[in-house]
């Protein structure tokens, strides 16, 4: 229900998907296009800016500088400084300002240069954006998006390589999405912008140049739904964001080398968490490995594994394994950084060991039929 | 002012009777500030305030019974019983919230002003805070952004000279708090917060500037008659300081002024006193009669846009509604058709007494 925002704001009818009516992207929208994750984000932001005058972008270096990672390239030129608003280095101030503007019915999209800097805005995100709707008895909503990339592997050291989406995934009132492909980036960004709640939209530095097919006429993806992105019989790999591509690569590798048929579940949303999809998958495959690009203890993998424990305990043929980052502040030097981050080889090892524990390829596999 | 005073006294009494839970921060002694500032605002202006906000809710025109019902945690409360003393919200009167985190409301107010400017509106925003909030980062980030973007917002500092038990002198390197605006080339002023007319005029002036795109910092010198909250005996004040605070009561001052300068009679004052008393008594009756919020509404306000897989579990609920069917038999079940006595998987047998 959108009563408050609708009362205050002009045309805050968020949940109605409206297709773009004009602009250069329209011509391309009848067919799929191959584009990078970065381009998918930029094209979608431009489409939404054209569609809804209440949408504006707020962040550091997004206008004149065209974005630290060039997501907002060209947008200042098309939409002007009123809607592509450069800010001082004041994450708490401008994130909170976006919350206040959203309370009056605008639909701000905040870019936080990296998720590391979101910690400076933690109070505004956790104590304000997430709570205003519930704490005041549903009188006013906060329709805003916080776009921010996480990710290590770029030799940026301990303070610039984190994936602290876990902190936000913990908080009711927030929605957290983590697209893994250009198509998901578009579909989930559309959904996030049109949603009446605050959405933390997690990007990833190492995904920006990844390519994929994007249907520019496709409807928004649903927040709160995971997807089986590769069906399989022998084991379920559960991942989100960058680790989905690692999971798919591992699945291809193990299909070729071991004859293993892996199912891959892409969580897409970290809050709400679609437990049913991955628990159903594990009930079919009877084994699970969970991947995450962050520290293991108390992590998203822990939540997924606990959910499998509750929902599929009697279906499991092996303990659930988690593959996560080493629990150190991420080092700068390349061999140290590489050793700390989950690599393909780590994922393959954990899957093979889990498969072995189920009796796979020993000729004594348990029949479930 | 009288209504706010009597309301706060009644709320304080209900709190000590355990009819009201949580924290309770009262506007006692700040009535001239609260009423003067609210009177200077247009009905279309927005107010963001802190956790000491009952007076503001009343002065903005919120229903007295609903303010009291919120304190009582009732369904008819201003925030439907979800907010309590610190988190009152009334969209109709553009009371955009009391906020419990010191300084947290300041970026929000700044953003509301941004929304007004974005739409070309003529409204303005008032953000109130205590003196302690001027030491927090959000204060400085907000003032900088507001000045940089020429936003229609007035920052009102309620300087009662105490942040909980820490005096302004002990917490602010620049104790003349209005001077902090200079760092942002923002206009500012200081006004006597015991004089409602002075607060009204100063706030009006500040709002006029703000509407013209010149945000303003107004420091209002008030007095806190009692402790930080109802449970605080204010032991950090000397007996002399406490007596001095009580001697500066703005309500006494206004009463004297009305009699001496305004020619009001004692009968008139007594009549107002009775009216305030009756209104507060009615509000309390309303609050007591209001139902408690239904527990099945617990999940009504988590999200504005419904979303699949939203958690609606109560603390003892299982994650999955139907118990999973066992399709994998335990190792010891395979041959025997039942758990072996020595199985590590079998449950301990009850021991006969």
Task: Explain what this protein looks like in three dimensions.
The complex is a heterodimer of chains A (369) and B (353). Chain A has 369 residues and is an alpha/beta fold. Chain A folds into two domains: 3-215, 3-Layer(aba) Sandwich (Rossmann fold), CATH 3.40.50; 227-357, Rossmann fold (3-Layer(aba) Sandwich). Chain A is built from 14 helices and 14 strands. Chain A has helices at residues 3-8, 24-28, 37-51, 75-79, 91-103, 122-129, 132-135, 165-169, 182-194, 242-258, 275-285, 300-312, 334-340, 344-357; strands spanning 32-36, 55-59, 84-86, 107-111, 145-150, 175-177, 199-204, 211-215, 227-230, 235-239, 262-266, 269-271, 288-295, 321-325. Chain A has a seven-stranded mixed sheet, sandwiched between helices. A five-stranded mixed sheet of chain A has the order 9-11-10-13-14, with helices on both faces. In chain A, helix 5 packs parallel to helix 6 and helix 11 crosses helix 12 (300-312). The longest helix of chain A has 17 residues, at 242-258. The radius of gyration of chain A is 21 Å and the shape is globular. The N and C termini of chain A lie far apart (46 Å). Chain B is an alpha/beta fold and 353 residues long. Chain B has a single domain (2-297), classed as Rossmann fold (3-Layer(aba) Sandwich). In chain B, the strands form two sheets. Chain B has a six-stranded parallel sheet with strand order 2-1-3-4-8-7, with helices on both faces. A two-stranded antiparallel ribbon of chain B has the order 5-6. Residues 326-348 of chain B have low confidence and may be disordered.
């Amino acid at each position: 229900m959108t009563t408050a925002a609708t009362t205050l704001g002009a045309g805050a009818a968020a949940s109605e998907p409206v297709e773009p009516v004009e602009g250069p992207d329209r011509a391309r929208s009848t067919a799929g296009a191959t584009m990078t994750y970065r381009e998918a984000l930029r094209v979608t932001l431009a489409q939404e800016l054209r569609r809804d005058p209440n949408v504006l972008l707020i962040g550091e270096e997004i206008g004149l500088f065209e974005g630290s990672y060039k997501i907002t390239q060209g947008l200042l030129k098309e939409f002007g400084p009123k809607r592509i608003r450069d800010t001082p280095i004041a994450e708490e101030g401008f994130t909170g300002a976006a919350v206040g503007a959203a309370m009056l019915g605008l639909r701000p999209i905040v870019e936080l240069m990296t998720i590391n800097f979101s910690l400076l805005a933690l109070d505004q995100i956790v104590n304000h954006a997430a709570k205003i709707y519930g704490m005041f008895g549903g009188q006013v909503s906060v329709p805003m998006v916080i776009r921010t990339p996480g990710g290590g592997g770029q030799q940026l050291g301990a303070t610039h390589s984190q994936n602290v989406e876990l902190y936000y995934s913990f908080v009711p009132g927030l929605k957290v999405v983590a697209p893994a492909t250009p198509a998901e980036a578009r579909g989930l960004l559309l959904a996030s912008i049109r949603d009446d709640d605050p959405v933390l939209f997690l990007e990833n530095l190492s995904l920006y140049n990844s390519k994929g097919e994007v249907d520019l006429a496709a409807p928004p993806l649903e927040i709160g739904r995971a997807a089986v992105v590769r069906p399989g019989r022998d084991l379920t790999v559960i991942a989100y964001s960058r680790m989905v591509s690692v999971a798919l690569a591992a699945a291809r590798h193990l299909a070729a080398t071991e004859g293993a048929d892996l199912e891959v579940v892409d969580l897409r949303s970290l809050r709400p968490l679609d437990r049913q999809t991955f628990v159903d998958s594990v009930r079919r495959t009877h084994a699970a490995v969970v991947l995450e690009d962050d520290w293991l203890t108390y992590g998203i993998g822990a939540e997924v594994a606990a959910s499998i424990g509750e929902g599929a305990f009697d279906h499991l043929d092996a303990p659930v394994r988690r593959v996560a980052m080493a629990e150190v502040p991420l080092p700068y030097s390349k061999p140290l950084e590489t050793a700390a981050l989950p690599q393909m080889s780590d994922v393959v090892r954990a899957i093979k060991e889990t498969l072995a524990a189920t009796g796979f390829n020993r000729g004594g596999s348990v029949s479930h039929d | 002012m009288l209504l706010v005073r009597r309301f706060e006294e009644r709320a304080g009494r209900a709190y000590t009777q355990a009819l009201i839970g949580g924290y309770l921060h009262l506007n006692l002694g700040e009535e001239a500030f609260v009423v003067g500032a609210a009177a200077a605002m247009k009905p279309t202006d927005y107010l963001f305030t802190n956790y000491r906000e009952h007076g503001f809710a009343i002065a903005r025109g919120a229903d007295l019974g609903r303010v009291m019902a919120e304190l009582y945690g009732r369904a008819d409360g201003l925030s439907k019983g979800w907010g309590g003393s610190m988190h009152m919200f009334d969209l109709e009167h553009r009371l955009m919230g009391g906020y419990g985190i010191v300084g947290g409301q300041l970026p929000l107010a700044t953003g509301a002003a941004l929304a007004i400017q974005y739409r070309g509106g003529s409204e303005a925003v008032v953000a109130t805070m205590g003196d302690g909030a001027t030491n927090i980062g959000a204060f400085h980030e907000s003032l900088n952004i507001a000045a940089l973007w020429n936003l229609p917002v007035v920052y009102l500092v309620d300087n009662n000279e105490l942040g909980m038990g820490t005096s302004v002198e002990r917490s602010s390197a620049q104790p003349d708090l209005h001077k902090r605006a200079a760092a942002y080339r923002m206009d500012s002023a200081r006004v006597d917060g015991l004089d409602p007319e002075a607060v009204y005029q100063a706030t009006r002036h500040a709002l006029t500037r703000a509407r013209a795109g010149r945000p303003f910092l107004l420091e209002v010198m008030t007095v806190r008659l009692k402790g930080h909250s109802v449970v605080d005996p204010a032991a950090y004040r000397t007996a002399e300081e406490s007596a001095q605070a009580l001697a500066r009561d703005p309500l006494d001052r206004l009463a004297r002024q009305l009699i001496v300068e305004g020619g009001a009679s004692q009968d008139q004052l007594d009549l107002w006193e009775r009216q305030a008393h009756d209104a507060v008594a009615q509000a309390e009756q309303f609050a007591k009669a209001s139902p408690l919020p239904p527990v099945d509404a617990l999940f009504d306000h988590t999200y504005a846009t419904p979303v699949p897989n939203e958690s609606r579990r109560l603390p003892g609920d299982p994650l999955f509604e139907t118990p999973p069917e066992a399709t994998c038999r335990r190792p010891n079940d395979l041959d025997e058709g039942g758990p072996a006595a020595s199985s590590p998987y079998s449950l301990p047998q009850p021991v006969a007494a």
